[in-house]
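Dear colleague,

Thank you for sharing your sequence with our group. We've completed the structure prediction you requested, and as agreed, I am returning the results in plain text so they can be pasted directly into your records. Please verify that the sequence below matches your submission; if there's any discrepancy, let me know and we will rerun it promptly.
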Amino acid sequence: MRDPVSQPRRFAVAYHPNLPEAAVEAHSITRSLQEVGAERVEVASLYDNVLMNHIQDRIFDVLIAVGGDGTMLRAGRLCAPAHLPVLGINLGHFGFLIELRPADWPARLALLMEGGYHLEDRMTLHAEHWNGSERLGAWDVLNEVVVCRGQFVRPVQLTASVDGYPMSTYVADGLIASTPTGSTAYALAAGGPIMPPELRNILIIPVAPHLSMDRAIILAEGSSVKIEVETRHEAVFSVDGHAPITIRLGEYVQAVTGENVVTFVRFQDPGYFYRNLSGYREQNHSISGV
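Please find the predicted structure tokens below.
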């Protein structure tokens, strides 16, 4: 946690376009911010091109994201290069990344403008897809990169290297390279450890391994991981749950610590992470035994 550098006065209020109630909530937040003296408030869909350009131009002090965890992931990726803090209002089902519920924000807006909050930096991954010396794509990632089987229900063979040194060959449904933030997402469902959000380590964990390494590995801070496909049938990879991309025999995904961090606005003390984790475990039987 770190203290804010100023008292914010310029706000973007962004909502998930597929949640009608999010747009309604976003406009209510906008009116309230104007009533408590905000100098500038811009409300739009999180996919609005004008809003995205204004984020890049760094004309806001805080972005308020209204939606679920997916909304927070997109908001974080958009705001990280601009060093723009994100405050989440949860209208989704889980909301593990999000600070406030709809009932909470009316009492928090004045506190926000007074600087009565902390900033929490979250590590990102920079992932690249390579075929030999040709880079086929690059992404900034907040949760995880997953290399896994495609539509055929059979495991894939993957080789993982760390800092250029071979680490292990996996026969599995997939292999996850996760940030500490992502350790409470897909990696947790795969049986991985929960990592405090302030760490800057990459977590490697296989999904349904078959007669191969079945333990998670936490890499040293600053390490990079290369995941290469060694199988001829279909394999794909996905970043932060996006649509899968085909990855062929001999191609690989490289993941390193990203240059940018995603910054979240927090009103709670640093122990919030463990309190929230316990609360979600009690509510969600799928992770209650972790």
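Summary note from our side: DSSP finds six helices and 16 strands in the chain.

Kind regards,
the structure core
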